[in-house]
Structures are given as C-alpha cells and as structure tokens.
Amino acid sequence: MTAETARSRHDPLWRMIALAWPRGGRFALGVVLGAVATGAGVALLSVAAWLLATAAEHPPITALSVAVVATRALGVSRGVARYLERLVTHDAAFRTLADVRVRVYERLARTEPVRRFRSGDLVSRLVSDTDATQDLLLRGLTPPLVAFLTGGAVVAFCTALLVPGGLLLAAGLLLAGLAVPLMAAALGRGPGRRQAAARGEMSAALVDTLYGAPDLIAYGAMDRAVRRVEDADAELTRVARRDSTLLGFGAGAMALITGLTVWGALVLGVAAVEGGRLDAVSLAVLVLTTLAAFETVTPLPAVAARLGALRASGERLFGVLDTPPSVTAPEPDAAADGALSEGAPEDTDLRIRSLRVRYGPDEPWALDGVDIDIAPGRTVAVVGPSGAGKSTLAAVLLRFRDPDAGTVELGGADITRFPVDEVRRVITGVPQDPHIFASTLRENLRLARPGCTDEEIWAALRRARLAHEVEAMPRGLDTEVGSHGTRLSGGMRQRLALARALLAAPRVLVLDEPTAHLDPDTRDAVVADLLDAAEGYSTLLITHDMAGLERVDEIYVVAEGRVLQHGSPAELAAREGWYRDALRVP
C-alpha cells in the first residue's frame, strides 16, 4: 500500500488531530487544567451543598470554617485553571493552525495544484476549511477528554456516598455524554457535508460574480450570476437551519437526561435516608453534585453535531494537501553537481530529446517524441494549431510538469536533476496569461529580483519598450496597476511581464503565446518588441500566430504532439505543409 493510499483511507478527523501531535504535551496540559477547572466547579457546588445543609443544623461556626475557606479556594482555582486552560490550548491550537496554513501554502506553491480548484472554492479551503482544524482541536478534542477525567472522578465520589446514586449518575453521564453526541454526530454527518460544499459553492459564486462583473454586465448575464449567488446563499441558509435543529435537539436531550438523573438521585437518596444508609447532609451533597456533574458533558452534543461539517472540511483541506505533485523534486543524493545557473547566456544550448508528456494514464500523448534544439543566442519558434501540445512544452521547460519520457538538457545538464527554483532562475519568460499583482509597477517588477535598483528596473523597461509609457504616468514606477493589471492595456501587461523576466537575468527565455489576447495591430507591435528585447538570449517563441516569424532563426511545426516540420522560415515557406498553408490564410 502506498503512502498516498494509506493517507486516503484515514478518517480526516484523525488526520486533523494528528496535525497537533508536535504540541501534544501542551494539549495534554490543557486537558489537565480543564479537568481541574471543571472539577473545581463541581466541587464548589458540592461543598456549597454541604455548607448549607450543615449550617441548617446550627453547628459551631468553627465546624464551617474549613468549608468556607474551601469554597473561596475552589472559586478562585476554578477561574485561574479555566484561564490557564484557555491560554494553553488556544496557544497550541493557533500555532498548529499556523503550521497548517504554511503547509497548505507550500503545497500550492510547490505542486502547482492551484488551477485544479475554482478560485472561490480555493479561498474557502484556505480559510474556512483550514480554520476547522482549530475548531476541532479546541471543541472536539479537549472537552471529551475533560469530561472523561472529571466525570469519572465525580461518579467515583457519588458512588462512595451511595452506590445506586453513583451508578445512576454513571448511566446519565453515558447517555448525555456518549449516546446523545453519537446520535447528533450521525444526524449531522449529511448536513455537515452539505454545509462545507454549500460554503465552497457560495464562495465560488460570489468571487466569480465580483471578478467577472464587467463581462457579465456586457453580455447581459449579471442576473443569472446574481441568481446563482442567491441560490447558493439559500442552500447555505437551509443547511444552517438544519444545523440549528440538531443543536436544539442536543440541548433538549441534555436537559431531559439531566432532569431525570437528578430526580432519580433524589428518589434514591430519600429512600436511603429513610433506610438509614445516608444522612440528610450527604443527600444534599449527592443531589447537587449530580446536578453539577452534567456540566462536564454539556458541550459534547454541540461538538458532535458539528463533526460532520468538520469531517467534510478536513476532506476538502486534505484534498489540497494530498494533491499529487506535478513536479518531483530530485533526491538530495541524486542532485546534479554544480549550479545550473553557472555559465553565460552565450554558452547556453537547450536540447529536447524524445520528450513525451500526457496528463493521465488513459489520456493521449500531449507531446509524443518531440526533439528540439535551441543553439546559444538563437531564436526558435514552435508553431502549430491549438491543442498541438505547445503550452505543455512550455510547462515542462518552466518545470510545471515532469516529462513522462525523454530529456530536457540545458548546457548538457538534465533540468529534472536540479531543484525547481534553480531551473526557474535560468529558464523563465512570459506565460500566455501573465499574472499582474494588484500593486505598483515597481513591486511587480521587483518580484523577479527583490534587490534590484531603480536604474536596473528602468533598463529592463527600456528593453521591453515600456519605459516611455511609464514615464508618462503621473506616479511613474509607483503607479498602481489594479487587480490583475486592469489599469494597463493588454500589450502593456505583456511588456511588463517581459521586463520582469529580463530582470531575472535568465539564460533561456520562453515566450508562450504572448499575443493570445491582443488585437492584430497591437499583436504585431508586441511581437516586434518582444523579439527585440530577447535579442542575445536563447529564446523559444511558442505561438499559433504567424506574426513576426520571419525574424526567427528556426521554426518547428508541432501538431498532435509531434514535430511535423523543421527549418528556417524561408525553407518552410517554400515547402508543402502546415506552415505554408497557415501563411496563406489572411
């Protein structure tokens, strides 16, 4: 059985609890402090019962002094222990939650699963479902253990007073602390799962509507989008009402069992007093201690009713954490010697041999035996129809996917033998849809090299033919670009992404469909600027567009994952095939 299979068979609740294992000592201390606080509350009522019953017999005041002091001590210790319990358990839970968030972020950053989830649903997984770990640890782990410790001690005490009374209390606590929670958990499993799904759908619908508002309004689809949000909200409200019904059931069942148990203890106690097996003071202690004992199990039904939602949140959380990596990091002992970033661009050659990639065991090959060479300082274009495998090639080069077969060598070194970040420092470029962060131009550019100076930024902007536009802006490099760069034109976003890539000082530039979302006039200008800026680099231009291809050194025509043609632009234009046919299309 593989590790992934073993993990998938474990209950998400146990896996969430296991996340707190490094801080198990703190949680154990919190359980002890919680038991002390709850036990002090029960003991306080017991001592108060003894004090009141004894005082009714008018004993000497000295006989009550110990009970008076004990009452004060228990009152103080209860508050102090409760404070310390909350301090210790919340500190441990928050630290565990921070670790979980870091693990989620690292998994998203290292295994590229972001595009496998809808953006709104992913936000829900990162926030609500991750926070469920804290909820489980604080309300689902500590209270049952505290109830077990304190309830056992109280039952033992009441049994010492009156055996039938202790047995009755044990039965009542088992019903209230075990049977009712189990029933609430069973009834809450379905609604809990629906609640997690409804919360994710609500988040996804809301994010899609907000971010897509301009297009939705333009195409008259805003009403449908709003109805989708309203439907998601209605479903979430229905699930919340069912959850409230379960909470009401738990509270009502708890009150009923508590009342019946206390009445039963009173009846048994009165019979024992009449039989001479129990005195009146002990009867008062027995009854009030029985009433106070149910404080230990009061939180359990509400927690149990939420286990379904917590389990569903755990499944969604581990759905992110268990996402298999698209790229396998090399083993430390298998890593290649030396740094891939060593060497100058003019010494760089990129060789792709027999490259094969597919997205699933039963899927067709996206790339099927591709061979491509990029000599140092040369510009090579890979062209072909949509779905030919061109973007898959870019994903392999930028280490977003592992090859299923074949090799990619840079300067004679297999890039899969180097850490991902090392490869991305030397092979970078402009993706098909570059992400522009909602910040300033300067901060977007400094992502590539955090320590770069403004002079270096301006040099990169000039090379990307964007300096003139930035100089014309009132705030220059401090201009806010808006969410996803909405304050910039499509061509400016592409040039900004190119300037960012140039700041990283790579050895190979990969330009993946840089004109995919541009109009024809802008497209020609952007291609010319990109190729001018890439001069001197080993450059791979991946495109289905014919604009600017007369300036590249070599062209590879790819279709259905295979190289169909290879040659210079002039050679391919003179040869029958896809390239010449595409040139003829107006």
Overview of this protein structure:
The chain contains 20 helices and 10 strands. The two termini are 58 Å apart. 61% of the residues lie in helices and 10% in strands. The longest helix is centred in the middle third of the chain and has 53 residues. The protein is of the alpha/beta class and 586 residues long. The chain folds into 2 domains: 312 residues, ABC transporter transmembrane region fold, CATH 1.20.1560; 177 residues, 3-Layer(aba) Sandwich (Rossmann fold), CATH 3.40.50. Keywords: ATP-binding, Membrane, Nucleotide-binding, Transmembrane, Transmembrane helix. It is a multi-pass membrane protein. This is Thiol reductant ABC exporter subunit CydC. Pfam families: ABC_membrane, ABC_tran.
Quick overview of this protein structure:
With 586 residues, the protein is α/β, with parallel strands linked by helices. The protein is built from 20 helices and 10 strands. It has helices at 3-8, 12-18, 24-55, 61-111, 119-161, 163-211, 213-218, 222-274, 280-293, 300-305, 307-321, 390-397, 420-426, 441-446, 454-463, 467-472, 490-503, 520-533, 569-573, 578-584; strands at residues 350-357, 367-374, 379-383, 405-410, 413-414, 427-430, 508-512, 538-543, 554-559, 562-567.
